[in-house]
Design goal:
alpha+beta, nine-stranded antiparallel β-sheet, two-stranded antiparallel ribbon, 2 helices, 33% strand, disordered N terminus
Length: 207
Amino acid sequence: MRVLVRVMLLPVAALALMAAAAPGLSIGGFRSAHFGMDESSVRHAIESDFKLGFGDIVAGTDMVQQTNDLSVTVPGLLPGAGRARVDYVFGYQSHQLIEVNVSWAETADPANAPPALLRAGSTLQAYFEGESFPPGSAAVNMALPDGTMLLFRGTDVGGHAVLLTLSGPISKPGKDGHVTMTPALLSLVYAANPANPDVFKLPSGAF
């Protein structure tokens, strides 16, 4: 079965902004892994959270941003979805945890078929909508220029952010000018400082 999500490009003013009741929410990381931890501490957190061994954790490097990361594959992370990949990213200068990316991809697990991704995205969206983000700090249901659906974006009082998106192949525009997207990837990102991430950047005026 092919599930289609209708995409319409919306102006920024059309965003659904959520005014939550309490401003005290804090985004500190993912499960037992907290922003600011070093690699050794995150390894222990992964092993504790998912009952994985040292050999299940894969270390890598982003050669462009010059950040290191630890990656694991986790089954059963979200009911009704297939295996998820969790990437823990460490800052270029600080070497501390700055971001956690959780993704469910159909290419990685057939159980992450479009209907499953659509249900999982709706489940996570409802979860975050129920959290106490500060008034005016959260947005839902926005179509990004590349066709990706922004299901939820929220920022706490410290500037930490959570981002939930659903993406996939985009069809050609129909007679009504609309396009459709077939879900293939559900992505959840927790970021310590999305406005100024700790990644390698060439200094201004270098070239």
